[in-house]
Amino acid sequence: MEKNIAYIALFAALIAVLGLIPKITLAFGVPITAQSLGVMLCGTVLGAKRGALAVLLFLGLVAIGLPLLAGGRGGLGVFASPTVGFLIGFPVAAFVTGWITENWRRAPVGIAAGVAAVIGGIVVLYAFGIVGMSVVMGKTLSEAAMLVTAFIPGDLLKAGIAGMLTSSLVKARPGSVLSRS
């Protein structure tokens, strides 16, 4: 129990720290950050439930006003911004990523984690992000989808990094990758 709580808190902190990495804000108000890598790692390392809980803890801290998002943003106002869909999608993305990593046992962990990060951390997350951008910005779904295409190369790189880090962690400390234990 205590180990799970510590891991959940640690990964919520990891997402926050990854928001400190220098970011680029696109013209339509959505920043490119490394925080989605943290969401992917929550799933690949912690598994579905613990990964989603870590992201929910992070979002709870953001909601109460801690400036943990890229650019030092926090508070309830961020849930009315163009990034709202991505924020709402974070825990779902971590859950799906974790579920795939937990259940796809036939593949080596690095491959399973990398593919899971693409499906959960990109496909699922973009689905939420596109809908959120469409609603907040008054764009059609296809217009919002075109806006997020700028994120695809970086997010594919993050998914690869998540797969490699998870694989390396399994080799170095197998018991610490809860998605596979």
From TrEMBL:
- What domain of life is recorded for the organism? Bacteria
Record key words, sorted: Cell membrane, Membrane, Transmembrane, Transmembrane helix, Transport
Q: Which Pfam families match?
A: BioY
| Protein name per Swiss-Prot or TrEMBL | Biotin transporter
Mainly resides where? membrane
Gene Ontology MF terms in the entry: biotin transmembrane transporter activity
Subcellular compartments: Cell membrane
Family the entry assigns: Belongs to the BioY family.
Q: Which sequence ranges are marked TM in the entry?
A: 51-69, 76-100, 112-136
InterPro entries listed in its UniProt record: BioY
* Gene3D superfamilies, sorted: 1.10.1760.20
Matching PANTHER family: BIOTIN TRANSPORTER BIOY, BIOTIN TRANSPORTER BIOY-RELATED
Name the membrane topology term. Answer: Multi-pass membrane protein
Name one cellular component (GO) term.
plasma membrane
